[in-house]
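Internal tracking record. Fields below are filled automatically when a chain is submitted to the structure queue. Please do not edit lines marked as system-generated. If the sequence contains nonstandard residues, flag them in the REMARKS field before resubmitting.
Queue: standard
Priority: normal
Entity type: single polypeptide chain
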Amino acid sequence: MKTWSELTEIQPLASRIMTNSIQKDRISHAYLLQGERGTGKEAVALLLAKTLFCSNRSGVEPCQECNACKRIDSGNYPDLHWIEPDGQSIKKEQIEHLQKEFTYSGMETDQKVYVVKGADTLTPNASNRILKFLEEPSKQTTAILMTENSSSIIPTIRSRCQIIDLKPLHPQAFQEQLIHQGISRRSAVLLSTLTNNLDEAVSWSEDEWFAQARKLMIQLVETFSTNAHDAYLFIHQQWLPHFKERPQQEQGLDLLLLAFKDILYYHIGRKDAMTVFAKDDAAIENLVLFFSQEKLLDILNKLLDAKRKLKQNVHPTLVMEQLTIQIQG
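SYSTEM-GENERATED OUTPUT FOLLOWS
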C-alpha cells in the first residue's frame, strides 16, 4: 500500500479520516494507529511521513519519486525517527535519545516525524517521558504511535492522540488478493491465517525458509503419531536449528496450532475450515485415528501456553522441550 487510494480499498474509514485532515491542512500533532498485526499500521505511518516530507505532492498523494519519498522507503530519511522495542519493551533511554534528537534543527526541513512501533510496550518511565513530548507539541512535529493492544496504553497518552482504528481484513478478500499475486489457493488459505500483510504473505510464499518450516511442522506432527519417542530428538536436530529467531519460533508454534486444529476440524466434520492439510490427504486420516478430540484440545491449550511462555522470554529450547514432553504424554 503505497498510496492513499490503495489504502482506501483496504481501510476506507482510516484512509478517509487521514486524507480529509491532509486536504484541510489539519494534521494532528499525534496519532495512535491501533489494529491487529498486518492491518496496515506501518503503511499508514510511511504514507503520512511521505505526505509531510514529499517535495512534489499531487493533492494528498506523495509522488514516490522525489528524494524524500525514496529515502523514506529505504529507511534513510534523517527527520523520520523510528522507535521499536529494545527486547521486550521500549525503554526510557530510547525516548530520552529521541528527545535529544529533537532539540536539533531538522536536517532536510523544519518538519520532524517520529514513529513508535509497539507503543503498548512502553515502560512506565518511557510512557511518562513520551507523555511530556505529547503535552508540549511543536507545530512542526508529528508523532505516530502504533499498537496491537491499545488497552495497554495509559489513558493520558491516548487522550492526546487522534485514534485511528484499523479493521481486520476479511480473510476471503485477502485470499483473493494473494491468488491475484500468483499464489495457489491452498497456500493463500494458509498464509491468510498467519498474516494480514500482503507484502509479508507474498514474501513468505517465495521464501525457502518458510517452505521448509511447513515441511518440518508436518514431519513433527506425524512423528508424534508414528514414533513419539523420536520427537525429542527431532526437536533438537531439526526444529530448533531451523527456528532460530524469536519471530520464527512464534511462527513455528502458529504452524503447529494450525496443524492440530486441522485434525480437530476433520474430527468434527469441518473439513472446509482446514488450512494445512488437504481434505483428501491420507496423512490426516491417520492422524485423526491417532489423536482423540480430548487429546487435541489438550494439545491446543499446551501450544497456547507455549506461546505465552515465549512472550514472557522463557528460553525457546526449554519451551519446546516441555511442549514435546506434554504432547508425548
